[in-house]
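To whoever picks this up:

The parser on our side crashed when reading a file containing two proteins. I've narrowed it down to the boundary between the first structure block and the second sequence. Both blocks are reproduced below exactly, byte for byte. First block:
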Amino acid sequence: MIIGRALGWLLIGVAFLCVGMELTSWVGGSGYEVLALGTIWAKINANSLVGFGAFVEKSISPALWRNVLVPILGVPAWLFFGLGGMATVALFRKRKRHRYSLPIRNRRS
């Protein structure tokens, strides 16, 4: 449970970093550019992105790559990581333990 919550908060932190990167480039004078998820992946390792695309197109379906995965890679990174982090924190939230007790009747005999 705590590992799931920590992962969720880590993803939310990454979302804030992505927002900071977008704001830094905007304030720096280069204009506002959306930092897409695919852009981050390409900056980290472009060959793995190309290889994953080729694998999906050849092994699974070219339509899956074009119609599903490419639009997901175009999503702003802060939105992807932020929603993923919030969903993970909500999924692994602390839950109240309910104590069910039977009503006690006073018996007078």
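<<boundary where parser fails>>
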Amino acid sequence: MYTERNYLMWLSSLMNINIDIKLALIKSLGTAEAIWNASRNELLETKAIKGEKLEQLMESRYKYDMDGELEKLYRSEAEFIVPDDPCYPSQLLLMNDQPLGLYVIGRLPDNVYPMVSIVGSRRISDYGAAVCNKIAGELAKAGVSIVSGMAMGIDAVAHKSAIDAGGNTVAVMGTGADVCYPAVNTNLYNEIKNRGCIISEYPLGTRPYKANFPYRNRIIACISRATLVIEAAEKSGSLITANKAIENGRIVMAVPGNITSSLSKGCNGLIRKGCVPITKTEDVMEELGIKMSERELKNSEKELIPLAKDEKMLYDCISYEPITADELTEKLNMDAGEVACLLTMLELKGCVRRLSGQKVVRCL
């Protein structure tokens, strides 16, 4: 009645038993079904499990409701994929502690398409948001799937930018795939579910537990060929992801930042240790070994919208660091009313974005 996939769902649901024990049991007994059917003595003979962990496994066989879990999958429009499935992310097969399976809501990108994980601070700056929006959007347009963890800040911007660019994005959750966390990202969660996919190794219905998030970061790090860090403090969860990527032989890249900013210490530290500095989207593509076409390069430079001479002069003075209208007026020695008018035109053309305090930043 039940298949090996169902028994793998059961085994993967035992969150108090680490993946090394589970993999050792499978290596010794052959299948998850064999583990389910094994006697206490047979399990002890594997020398992979004993004591409290053994008791937890034995007890779980009486508590686990396979039919109920299958009903949850159906209600959530989810599926549980295993390493033998063609759609299982091929990069995860190279991990030492790969998940026994993944819960998926939505559609995973085909393995032929490259993935880049983008992570960073939850406490995002205007500079970080602008850079993330530009790079994630341009990568998505070039056919690269954007992976992140759907947290506030850089994660959310990376997902949203990929969707707005018409590309694909994958959210790796520290909860069950059917649980939106944080709740403030509900709209984004629904967009990702409809336009990309949500994945998790945790059983459906799993609530947010603090310990789950650093552990899930190994999937963010290893599902992609490369990880890009955009803004990270000196002690940041993003650095856990970066270090996991390094341990597993993935490319790690970082966007350099202001040396006086606490949000740049993590990225600048990665670069100092030898990670690849990224200043434009083409740098990422080069590391992936992908050549952008002339059309993609032109689109990425946003030269489709012509600017008048005065507009171009003003635009060239605006960067991804916020600047005030007064500072622009002084810098260009122009009339304040003229600068205000030109800023309005640039905003209407989608070239700049206004912030609080009469500040503007470059969008493109």
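After patching the parser it read the second block fine. The longest helix spans residues 126-141. The chain is about 45% helix and 15% strand.
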